[in-house]
Amino acid sequence: MNNEAIAKLLKLIAADPQKWDAYQKLAGLMLQNQEFHAAEQYLLQAISLKPDLVELRLQLANLHMRTQQFKAAHDCYKQAIALDAKQANIYYLDARALKNLGRTQEAILRLRTVTKLNPKHMQAFSECADLMLQAQQVEQAAALLRQAIVAHPEHAHFHYRLGVLCQQLHATDEALACMNEAIRIQPDFAEAYHQRGLMLQLQGHSQEALSSFSQAISYQPMLPVPYNNRGVILCQLGKYAEAISDFRQALQLNPGYASAYCNLGLALYENGESDESYQCLGTALQHSPNHAQARYYLSMLQLARGEYETGWTMYEARWQMFADPQRPDLRLLWRGNGSLVGKTILIQAEMTLSDTLQFCRYIPLIKAFKPNQIIVAVPDALFDLFNELWAQDASIFVIRQDGRPLPHFDVHCPMLSLPTAFSTLLDTIPAALPYLQIAERHQQPWQQLLGPARRLRIGLNWCGDAGNKYDALRSTPLYLMAPLLHMEVEWHSLQKEFRREDHIMLKRFPMLECHHPALTDFTQTAGLIMQMDLVISVDTAVAHLAAALGKQVWLLVPHQSHFRWLQQREDSPWYPGMRLFQQGPEETWEQVIDRVHQAITDRLAGH
């Protein structure tokens, strides 16, 4: 049929070469036969006869688009616009050509024109927002989507997309309102429920976030991400068994989902299943070798197992986990293998006071590398203690870590990277005690106040900082110490601060002498500790301080303990002589304290 039609059209043209529409029809037939060059020639002939006809320019432009001649297509669309500047669709088509040419900003301008000429053109709004986001014009994209919503108030996806952008722009109230509106318009909009859950989670509304994730799952049960995110909320609520179920479901739907493996590993660990947790975190890294969270948490499990050779190196992933604007350029990081002769090295405390007290032991060892100076930046709470400790050592300069500009240095090493720099293994831990000392002038007032010991003198520390993530696991209520406090022992509180319930209990335990008004800093606490025969403490900075001062310490360790205490041990290679009372998987604190009671009884019998 095409051949007959072509023959007829050629006869028409032969009879009348001015029949432009015959050329146009021939071009159409050539296109059907995919004879693009011939189609182009016929269209050019038609245009030469009818140069003001927009339709012909558009046909030629569309042909160029089909053959991926985007520059030629753009030129044709420009000519069409010059002939008729009010056809919104021509601007839209030209935007596609410009987009293919990589001329994003010009494409955006074309699409903006479309939305002005024809606000009902939904695709133009959507594609313009896409291009703006590609160009990282987030605020402009949000403004455009607000215009789209005015033109299309019942289009759920515009509300949804604006909500996502508002969240990026920290306009959290507007973001949540947009998601709610998207859900109102489209009640089965699973992704909107999911995004709303993320927003509510960030705002700390855990139960509402949980409900929103559940609604997302009910409408789209085959999407793995909502299960993963609901699992995260369940972990935050301490519902580990339910979280584990969600993470497993996410992995069933997407077996390569590294974050779900990582989260499953964390949930299993918190649920007391550390062996499978170890495996899951390892699997996460098989799927995503640079997954910072998986590397960080696996490193702590490795360190808890005593796998120091790999664990310390992997623990460097904490830098990706915890942003620190004060952390110097990692290119200046000292890794233990570079000369320090003539150089100044900065050692910065990080994490907790306990970490600083544990790992400051490495600082004198750096002197073997003969640096010009060692600058040690520590929290204000420890400044006086360390400043006095090294006051007579001209090579060590202690500064406060208070956000002020750092003095000049050549290289640096965060304090928790020192075990890596020194290639520390279990049998090479620098464990000579004491490595902290306290001046006699800080001890004398306590000696005068306490006088000679009447019986075994024990310092007690039963709780730490309430703001610590794991405080509920490590701290114990004072009333649980009642069996100990009724023993024939001289008891002294090492607590600097008390919780509200402690004040009530202290009235019931007059045998526990409290000294908190005088414990103004760690030097005072150290002075008091030096008067003790024994310190019994939960896992706080006080325990590290006492052990570093060379005092005997009995440590009450929760079942889910910090990696520093290793797994299933009753001693610590970091503090020779320390005794660990580790809580068993099903053991209550009352049972642990019963064991401590027996140990004190045995010691008293030994005396």
Record the SSE blueprint.
Elements: H1 2-15, H2 20-32, H3 36-49, H4 54-66, H5 70-83, H6 88-100, H7 104-117, H8 122-134, H9 138-151, H10 156-168, H11 172-185, H12 190-202, H13 206-219, H14 224-236, H15 240-253, H16 258-270, H17 274-287, H18 292-304, H19 308-314, H20 318-321, E1 344-348, H21 353-359, H22 363-366, E2 373-378, H23 380-389, E3 396-400, E4 411-414, H24 418-421, H25 440-450, E5 457-461, H26 471-474, H27 482-485, E6 490-493, H28 500-506, E7 512-513, H29 522-529, E8 534-538, H30 541-548, E9 553-557, E10 579-582, H31 589-606
Parallel strand pairs: 1-2, 1-4, 2-3, 5-6, 5-8, 6-7, 8-9, 9-10
Helix pairs in contact: 1-2, 2-3, 3-4, 4-5, 5-6, 6-7, 7-8, 8-9, 9-10, 10-11, 11-12, 12-13, 12-14, 13-14, 14-15, 14-16, 15-16, 16-17, 17-18, 18-19, 21-30, 25-29
Describe this structure in words.
By secondary structure, the protein is an alpha/beta fold. The protein has four domains: 236 residues, Tetratricopeptide repeat domain (Serine Threonine Protein Phosphatase 5, Tetratricopeptide repeat, Alpha Horseshoe), CATH 1.25.40; 86 residues, Serine Threonine Protein Phosphatase 5, Tetratricopeptide repeat (Alpha Horseshoe), CATH 1.25.40.10; 99 residues, Rossmann fold, CATH 3.40.50; 167 residues, Glycogen Phosphorylase B (Rossmann fold). Helix content is 56%, strand content 7%. The strands form two sheets. It has a six-stranded parallel beta sheet with strand order 7-6-5-8-9-10, with helices on both faces. Strands 3-2-1-4 form a four-stranded parallel beta sheet. Helix 8 runs antiparallel to helix 9. The longest helix is centred in the C-terminal third of the chain and has 18 residues. It starts with a helix and ends with a helix.
